[in-house]
Amino acid sequence: MSYRNQLLPMEKVFRDPVHDYVYIQHQIILDLINTSEFQRLRRIKQLGTTSLTFHGAEHSRFGHCLGVYEVTRRICDNFERNYPTKTPGDGGWDDHERIVALCAALLHDIGHGPYSHTFEHIFHTDHEAITVQILTSPETEVNQVLRRVSPEFPGEVAAVIQKTYPNPQVVQMISSQIDADRMDYLLRDSYFTGTNYGNFDLTRILRVMKPYQGGITFAMEGMHAVEDYIVSRFQMYMQVYFHPVSRSMEVILDHLLERANDLYQSQDVDAEATPHMLLPFFNNDFTLQDYLRLDDGVLNTYFNHWRDSKDQVLADLATRFLDRRPLKSARIDEQTKALVPSLQKLIERAGFNSHYYTDINDSYDLPYDAYDPKMKKPRTQIELMQEDGSLVELSTVSDLVRAITGKVSGDRRFFFPKEMLSRTAEVDLFDPIYQAFQQHIQNDRLIS
């Protein structure tokens, strides 16, 4: 049997709190899990700073990637059993695609860095581009495993991640409005945050998924399960992913890394606390191996060193991050946005550098947006298959989904030091400044 389809002598399992068991049946999947690049994902939290709001959210990218693999494996099993291709081009499932789908599912997040989105923002890295690099670079263990299938196989798996793979069924399994990635992270994040918002009927959705020539569709009788998924996703964004405290800690993290970078560029960094493993990123000249050495623990270790920095801003931001002292925030809109510069001046008068201690942060998401070819990045639509085989787009038949289609949900917030809301009994030098600032905050909003 070729390496591509080589089965393990006995199926292996990972115990999983979300899927009960993750079943490993192919040698290549086990070999990929055992690579150094994949094991690194154990040391990167799935939700970054969210664990500072929901203390249970300590789960890793490793567990999520296993979960996406398991959901994809179940989809493949369902397609092979119920919708196998009989003649080329009939829209059925060709199980020869199973291994490329499973590998892409397992490896889809392998390029994430520590505190991924914040790190990307500061150092202008792109986790999807780095994922492709890990898959295709001969220096990685992952590439060496994939090449055992064929010299072209790493590029095929990368094409799934890049959404250029010729079979849309495989691409949509991993990346679409309703895919294995989203289904796993909603259930997993809901479980570990201790919230119920992300729960939906995964088993039912997998039962009603069907392959067709244009990709993946859902049986009409499964519409309510799909609606439930859309609402769950909406609720998780509102209640968990957009939580103001998590965003506040991200702002501190962002400004902490920015301050460290600024000090390095001005050659004003403490010699004993030089973050050697970050210097390639400060210099914007890093290799793939430099990137793969980084994880959450590496950054946290530098933050601990920076507590003792002679630079007061760096030391204070590091302490605020490690000791969970979030900034406060208030909602702003187009009218009250004009107040921000004057509030920043008050913050400066109270002794804070407004560049590092304030920010405006947007968090918006379209819970479900119908396919629009005029969009720069059209989203895949969710289509339902009727009894006669014709397709209808979900929002045209679901009142519930139509109600939130195209509606942007989220808010824009102005973040500032908690000290600005101080109300001390003692006479404080900054009291008049605090009072002037507090006149513009009411019920979690900026007011004129």
TrEMBL record:
Signal peptide interval: none
Domain HD/PDEase: 57-195
SUPFAM superfamilies in the cross-refs: HD-domain/PDEase-like
Entry protein name: HD domain-containing protein
Database matches in Pfam families: HD, HD_assoc_2
InterPro entries associated with the record: dGTPase-like, HD/PDEase_dom, HD_assoc_2, HD_domain
CDD domains linked to this entry: HDc (cd00077)
Ranges in coiled-coil conformation: none
